[in-house]
Amino acid sequence: MGDLVLAIDQGTSSTKCLLVDAAGAVVATGSAAVPIRYPRPGWVEQDAGEILDSVLAAASECLAGVDPGRVRSIGLSTQRESAVVWDKRTGEPAGPVLGWQDQRAQPICDALRDKGEASRVREISGLPLDPMFSAAKLRWLLDRTPGAAVGTVDAWLLFALTGRHRIESGNASRTQLLDVRAGAWSPELLDLFGIPASALPAITPSSGSLGVVGARGGVLDGLPITAVLGDSHAALYAHGTLASRGVKVTYGTGSSVMRLGATDDTGVCLTVAWNDCLAAEGNIRSSGATVAWLASVTGVTAARIAELAAESSSDGVVLVPAFGGLAAPYWDDNAVGLISGLTLGSGPGQLARAAVESIAHQVTDVIEAMTPKDTSPAADSSRAADSSSSGRSPRSGGFSRAADCLLADGGAAGNDTLMQIQADLTGLPVYRARTTNLSALGVAFLAGGFTPPIEYDEFHPQPGDFTAQRSAWRAAIARSRERGASI
Question: Where does the Carbohydrate kinase FGGY C-terminal domain lie (predicted)?
Fold first, then answer.
């Protein structure tokens, strides 16, 4: 048996491959870009064939010069809610990949909401009725390609590489077609969205014998796939035992806030982390994108915005980046972006600081929604009885306690100012992973059956009262939503 695991991290803009040993060391890498197209406002498309080509190109680069006998298995981490359609007979794509940001299926969601089905959809799937999730996009695709096979990106790659029509349980939970507590496709949701069961892949665990790559996989031919995870789930898994204690935040263009355990709070989603472990997740639409936007309109670089934020105070300026509405914990598509608290003394520094603070405020909103409302010792003991001793919360488990740390990763987490603000607003120590590519590492750890520790930079809450900042933020959020409702 080989001593290396090949981790394939298929993301929205690129595919990265890492060859990882049991100590967590990366011995080789490869990458390939994936084109994104925007044919109309609100439409975000990719090509399934180009996604597959990027996987094979990145893998070829990573494995160049490596003895094939050293590679024992493949772990696959993927972008999540994007919807794919293909001909099961020929194996060829039958339409565009609708990206997770794609909004063209909004009318399908609106029609279900008008029928009063939104609460039932959330009750079964654990997700708010929103075109970000796959179900409405899959319906849109099937309306144009009846009889085709459908799935998410992981399902497409498993089919293309192994010939098996399968979907991993965590990715399945992001389709809005899964009964999240039962772990099976919901006949009621399939009926509501008009998705035939025959078009969907079979649900498979996150780890195990998930298929062997065939000749179509080129350099991957003959390798077994032993783990599949959604990218955010894989990043959580990489934190090992800390995952049971903390809340994980991946800071990117948007942000994913996730912690193990179930929740009844309707402001966050209920999802499958891996296998039969439930997790709560809040998705934030604009994090790094807010800094990029401000850099663009002020004609400077994102790095300069970060410098200005580190040097300045917001001085009462609050920026709500509801460019396309607000996601968790508000789920208000009508909310509008706004800047409040401006004075004649406000300048680029105050705006830069407010932009960075908006990221930390949004994450804090989600963490507050995930915090058990009763944290007394008696309640904590009762909840703990529902959790596994390993810290991997089972399907029936809830939060055993309030999180005691924040685990940070992603590109925007490299901003020290943001990390300190985040610690101050949440009152939690922030542990920022020193290692990059946590999604790839996490799926490598699961595929290989090893969990080496990772190293962190630490940011601890500073003394001070941040109540006024949080109050100003909540007031600005209220105005954003009121203004949106009046338009």
Answer: 248-448
Is residue 385 over pLDDT 70? Answer: no
> What integer is the mean pLDDT of 155-165?
95
Q: Which domains does the chain have, with CATH numbers?
A: 4-223 (3.30.420.40), 234-487 (3.30.420.40)
The string of pLDDT tens digits covering residues 75-116 is 999 999 999 999 988 999 999 999 988 889 999 999 999 999
Whole-Å CA distances, 314 to 116, 258, 340, 348: 42, 28, 11, 10
Query: Could you tell me the end-to-end alpha-carbon distance of the chain, in angstroms, rounded to an integer?
Result: 63
pLDDT at residue 388, as a whole number: 34
Q: For 165-321, where are the E strands, in sequence order? A: 166-168, 178-179, 184-185, 202-204, 225-230, 247-251, 255-260, 269-274, 277-284, 318-320
Taken in order 234, 238, 241, 243, the sign of the CA dihedral is negative
φ/ψ of 380, rounded to 5, equals -60, -40
**pTM of the predicted model, to two decimals?**
0.87
Of 440 and 436, the structure prediction assigns the larger pLDDT to: 440
- In this structure, are residues 403 and 247 in contact, taking their beta carbons and an 8 Å threshold? yes
- Distance CA(487)–CA(483), nearest Å, equals 7
Q: Which amino acid is at 165?
A: H
